[in-house]
Write a structure and sequence with these properties.
This protein is an alpha/beta fold. Helix content is 34%, strand content 18%. The protein is built from 14 helices and 14 strands. The strands form three sheets. Strands 5-1-2-7-6-10-11-12-13-14 form a ten-stranded mixed beta sheet, with helices on both faces. A two-stranded antiparallel sheet has the order 3-4. Helix 4 packs across helix 12, helix 5 runs antiparallel to helix 6 and helix 7 (241-261) crosses helix 9 (288-297).
Length: 456
C-alpha cells in the first residue's frame, strides 16, 4: 500500500485466482492502438494504455508558490511553500513525439519509491523505460466553453506521475489535469531552484491512540464503539504526522485551486490554463490524495465533483458529515485484500462507510457513489498495476490484470466527470459499471441497518 497511514497492512494468504473479465471490444481497440503506437515509437517496453479521446495530449511542468506558508512547517529558512506540478492538457492538431514516463529525475523518483515502499528496483525498472504519446510543450487546444480543470493529488510517499495513464486519457477527452507534489510526504522531489526535498521519515512518537482508533473504525462490528473511536481520532489527530499532513495537503490543494482561479499560476502554465473553465473544477486523487480531494472540495465553491481512488478518510470533520458534492469513491477489494491490520472482511461494511455522508442518511444518501474494484489491492489504483514486475505483483497490486484495471477505472472516472462537469447523464455511469464485471456497487448495508434501527 502507499503507507497513507501509520497502521501496517496485515499479511494475508494468497487468494484463489478469480478471472476478471474486461470489456473485450473496447480493450481490443485500445490495445490495438497501443500496439501500433509502440511499433511506430520503437518503445517496446511501454505497457500503459494510450489516450483514446479526440485530442492529442500535451504536458508541461510548473511550480506553484504559496507565500503564506513555509516549505517546511516551522522553518522560516526553508522559504515559501513550493508545489511542483505536472499538467496534462488537450493539445491542438496532431503534434508528434512522446515523453518519458518519469520525465526528468527518473533516478531520483525510482530511488525514493524503492526506499519508501520497500520494492526491489528491478520490480519497478519499467518506470524508467516506459514512454507515453504525450508531447512536452505542445500548443494547447481551445474550445468556446473552456476545458474543465482537475487538481490531482498522489498517494502518501508516492509521486505526481503515478496515474499518468488515467490523467493523460482524461486530457485526451478534454480535461486539463494539474497533478501536484506534496513535498515532504511525497517521493523525493526536485524544486525548480535545484533543491531536492526528500520524503520526511515517519516519526516514532506519534500518538498510538490514533492508530488504535483507526483499527477500531476499520474492524469493530459495534456502531457505538466506532462512534467513540471517531471522537478519539478527532482528539489525537492534531498531535500526529497524519493529522498534520491532512492540514498541509488541504492547504496545498487550496493554494493551487486559488492560484488557478485568480490567474496567478506559474508563467510556464499560463497558456494552458488560459484555456480552462475555472467554474468547472473537480478534485481527484489516490489514497491520501483521494481523501484530501474530498476535504478540499468541500471548501471550494467552484468544485463540482470529487474522485477518491481508494483513499481512507483521515479528516475528522468528514466522519458523519457530507461533502455536499457528488463524490466517486472507488474502493479496493477489501474482502480479499485487507488494507489495514484487523480490517473486517465484510462486503457489507467498509471503513469509508463512516465518512462523506451522515450516518442517519445512509439509506437515502445519493451524492456518494461507492464502487469496489474486484481483484484490486490498494496499489492497483496506480500505474503500477501495469508496470510492476516480479513475483510479488499480486501481493502489491492484486490479481486484476493491468489492462482491465486501467479500462475499468478510466471508463468510470470519465463517465462520472462527464456527468457532473459536462452536464451529462447518469446513464453514462450506469453503462460504465455494467461494461466491467470487476466494478461492483458497494451498498453500506451494515450502516443502513443501524440507521433503520436508530430511526425506530
Amino acid at each position: 500500500m502507499s503507507r497513507m497511514c501509520p497502521p501496517r497492512p496485515s499479511p494475508c494468504d494468497r487468494p484463489r485466482r478469480v478471472p476478471v473479465v474486461p470489456r473485450p471490444k473496447l480493450l481490443r481497440c485500445r490495445w490495438l492502438v497501443l500496439a501500433v503506437w509502440l511499433a511506430n515509437a520503437g518503445a517496446g517496453a511501454a505497457t500503459l494504455a494510450v489516450p483514446d479521446g479526440r485530442y492529442a495530449v500535451g504536458v508541461v511542468r510548473g511550480e506553484f508558490t504559496d507565500a503564506s506558508r513555509t516549505l517546511e512547517a516551522g522553518d522560516l529558512a526553508s522559504g515559501p511553500r513550493q508545489l511542483p506540478a505536472l499538467v496534462w492538457y488537450p493539445a491542438a492538431g496532431k503534434p508528434k513525439g512522446d515523453s518519458a514516463y518519469l520525465q526528468e529525475d527518473a533516478a531520483l523518483t525510482l530511488e525514493a519509491l524503492t526506499r519508501n515502499m520497500g520494492y526491489a528496483q528491478a520490480d519497478v525498472q519499467a518506470l524508467t523505460s516506459t514512454r507515453l504519446p504525450v508531447v512536452s510543450g505542445a500548443k494547447p487546444a481551445r474550445t468556446s466553453r473552456g476545458f474543465p480543470i482537475l487538481v490531482f493529488s498522489h498517494g502518501y510517499y508516492l509521486y505526481p506521475q503515478q496515474n499518468s495513464a488515467l490523467l493523460a486519457r482524461l486530457a485526451s477527452h478534454g480535461y486539463i489535469v494539474v497533478s501536484i507534489a506534496h513535498p515532504g510526504d511525497a517521493a523525493d522531489v526536485r524544486l525548480q531552484d535545484g533543491r531536492v526535498i526528500k520524503t520526511a521519515p515517519a516519526p516514532k512518537d506519534d500518538d498510538p491512540k490514533l492508530i488504535e482508533a483507526m483499527q477500531t473504525l476499520m474492524s469493530s462490528q459495534e456502531h457505538a464503539v466506532r462512534h467513540a473511536a471517531v471522537e478519539t481520532f478527532r482528539r489525537a489527530a492534531p498531535r500526529t504526522r497524519i493529522g498534520r499532513s491532512v492540514v498541509t495537503w488541504r492547504d496545498d490543494t487550496l493554494a493551487v485551486a486559488h492560484a488557478i482561479q485568480q490567474g496567478d499560476a506559474p508563467r510556464s502554465l499560463a497558456k494552458v490554463l488560459a484555456t480552462a473553465n475555472t467554474a468547472r473544477l473537480a478534485f481527484i486523487g489516490m489514497s491520501f490524495g483521494g481523501a484530501t480531494s474530498a476535504t478540499t472540495c468541500k471548501r471550494v465553491l467552484a468544485c463540482k465533483a470529487v474522485v477518491n481512488l481508494d483513499g481512507q478518510n483521515f479528516d475528522p470533520d468528514l466522519y458523519d458529515q457530507p461533502v455536499q458534492r457528488p463524490l466517486l469513491l472507488l474502493l479496493s477489494d477489501w474482502p480479499r485484500y485487507p488494507l489495514f491490520k484487523g480490517q473486517a472482511l465484510d462486503e457489507a461494511f467498509s471503513g469509508n462507510d463512516l465518512a462523506y455522508a451522515r450516518w442517519q442518511d445512509s439509506a437515502s444518501e445519493t451524492d456518494v457513489l461507492r464502487v469496489r474494484l474486484a481483484g484490486a489491492r490498494h496499489m492497483g489504483f496506480t500505474d503500477l498495476v501495469s508496470l510492476l514486475e516480479g513475483d510479488k505483483r499480486e501481493a502489491r497490486v492484486g490479481q486484476i490484470e493491468g489492462a482491465a484495471a486501467e479500462s475499468a477505472i478510466g471508463d468510470l472516472v470519465l463517465a462520472f466527470l462527464d456527468t457532473h462537469l459536462r452536464d451529462g447523464s447518469t446513464s453514462q455511469i450506469d453503462r460504465a459499471i455494467a461494461d466491467h464485471p470487476a466494478l461492483q456497487r458497494h451498498v453500506p448495508a451494515q450502516l443502513q441497518q443501524w440507521a433503520r434501527r436508530a430511526g425506530n
